[in-house]
């Protein structure tokens, strides 16, 4: 997934605020290596503590403007890191259709490149649920200097594909694989889902982990996650050189991440 040549993304800044105040959020449309337009938001650090930018990857049916994503970005910005949030393909105002973790790696690469274009020498990635699987696969596959991550944290991520061991995951598989489910995804959750099956099946998160070193890696999971039980984070952490945080009383993904955890994540991503 090189960022060289014709695959280089195009960025169009659509914010009218940045010319007024240098610390105002900036909105842009990015173009991925396969030509999909991705909406993104840049929030400068409110403390100017570090030159690190954190690229935040939301979960399935999320978007850059969902309250939980904006809350997480705000906490990280207060801790002294700049933050890039974006909507995966098929989500929010982004184009294309969701491939539920496959080609979304290209979306993340475009967001990381934008962070570097904005002047950040160090860029970390933080992903939740589906976004967690994407940051793991991105770190394993993307080695280009403009698109790679310098530190990676995956929160509430699955270890393996096609997991149906919990009721929420069985409902999710119905949404993704059935025509009626995709209609629910589109009109109920604002998520446009690709009807085509994976071909080939992408590298799984647990297969990606051994390929990430020497990039620092953190796996975070709640012990009350209703989607993925604790064998998922333990499997991920055991697959490579990773730090593991098991959070007592925590549920699933960005909606369950409280301010204390987000602050700890920001500190880890800054110093890792």
From TrEMBL:
Q: Per the record, a Pfam family?
A: Hydrolase_4
**Which Gene3D superfamilies does this entry report, sorted A to Z?**
alpha/beta hydrolase
Q: Where is the Serine aminopeptidase S33 domain?
A: 51-180
Q: Which key words tag this protein in UniProt?
A: Hydrolase
One GO molecular-function entry: hydrolase activity
Q: Which PANTHER family match?
A: DIENELACTONE HYDROLASE DOMAIN-CONTAINING PROTEIN-RELATED (PTHR22946), POLYKETIDE TRANSFERASE AF380 (PTHR22946:SF9)
Which family does the similarity line name?
Belongs to the AB hydrolase superfamily.
Q: What is this protein called?
A: Alpha/beta hydrolase
